[in-house]
Amino acid sequence: MKTRFSAKFKLTLILFSLIGQIAWVVENMYLNVFIYKMFNASASDISAMVAASAVAATLTTVFIGALSDKIGKRKIFMCGGYIAWGVSILCFILLRKDIIASVFPLTVSAASVGVTLVIVLDCIMTFFGSSANDAAFNAWLTDSTDSTNRGAAEGINAMMPLVAILAVFGGFMAFDLDKEQSWTYIFAIIGLTVIAVGIIGCFIIKEPRIERAKEGYFKTVIHGFLPSTVKANKSLYLYLAAFIIFNISIQIFMPYLILYYEVSLNMTDYVFVMAPAIILASVLTAVWGKVYDKKGFMFSSSASLMWLCAGYIVLFFFRSTALVFIGSLLMMCGYLSGMAVFGAKIRDLTPIGRSGMFQGVRIFSQVLVPGVVGPFIGKTVLANSETVVNNDGTESFIPNESIFLAALIAAAIVALALPLFRKDKKGE
After folding, report:
1. pTM listed for this prediction
2. Is 28 helix (H, G, I), strand (E, B) or coil?
3. pLDDT digits over 380-417, tens only?
4. What CATH number should be reported for the domain whose range is 7-420?
5. Residue 379 CB: number of other CB atoms within 10 A?
6. CA end-to-end span of the chain
7. Which residues pair with 397 in a beta bridge?
8. Strands (DSSP E) along 100-189, which ranges?
9. In this structure, are residues 308 and 330 in contact, taking their beta carbons and an 8 Å threshold?
10. N or C, which end of the chain is more exposed by having fewer CB within 10 Å?
């Protein structure tokens, strides 16, 4: 019998997942635009920021996830983390050229200092966000679901990045992103919203029943990385290895996606083009988690990778608005449904009572390696890309379609490796 979700569980899942993903969208997609437009960041700067954030997210999730297991609590990290996360987002309001120039009057370039400060503050923000979302929320979600409903819950969780993109795209339409004042409003709105969710969580989150980890804290921290743990959970680590390559594919193009639409394709109305694609992909992703529950990993992942690769091919070869929409729709469907089925499978294989410890391993495969390797590949592919001269005489790079070809190669590796996976017990 399928375990039914309570109303409070659904509200917590939707609220914490959606608002958390909105904050991550601002960081993962729009912070790149912010540093590009406000401080003339290069592809190397963006790659460095993404990599530094990935390292911060991984270390945070490893240590905070283990700590939440050690004390046997998730709620305090979720609520307190979201409040601190929101405060750190508000701090970006202070990163303006005029403020930087007044604080560092002897500095040659406020823009270069701005790039450094954005990267540092991004890591601080990532610490709080990963504590609350990557470590605590994801452990709570694993603890609060079982094998009968995990795919459905993960389908909802996995669709939220696209819903968040839609919300951010729609919300940001009113702002001119070339103006500093617009970013002040954006960071204020997002920061205050995240704080509000942390406060609401104090009243709606049900603490799952988990036993406190009996091992010492340090052993809890390194548990997921021990050879003995890998040996005892071979299937889990096999899926995690594939998940790494899948996410590398995503991170090759994702940091440059909005810049590609706006700068390379001159799509000033890309929000209107992307909104229908995002809505359709979100609906599919919510349903696809249930397909995983019924059909299993092999069927659901094969379809997801097929859509993803097809989207890359269309985006690489075509530049017309209609075909870019089709390519983006296929890419988004493959990306989010793939995240749902991989996420559900990894949660199914996570040892009971150790979900906090294994969030560090999950984030290692989802964020750290992909966040370092993916943008590096993207930066390398764009090394000889065209440039445009800005109004102040500086130059900025122009992302091109080569990022989708590189992403396609990585996704194809995962697709070709699927036959190596054992059939699971769900309809295979």
Report:
1. 0.74
2. helix
3. 988 887 776 666 566 677 888 999 999 999 999 999 99
4. 1.20.1250.20
5. 24
6. 19
7. 387
8. none
9. yes
10. N
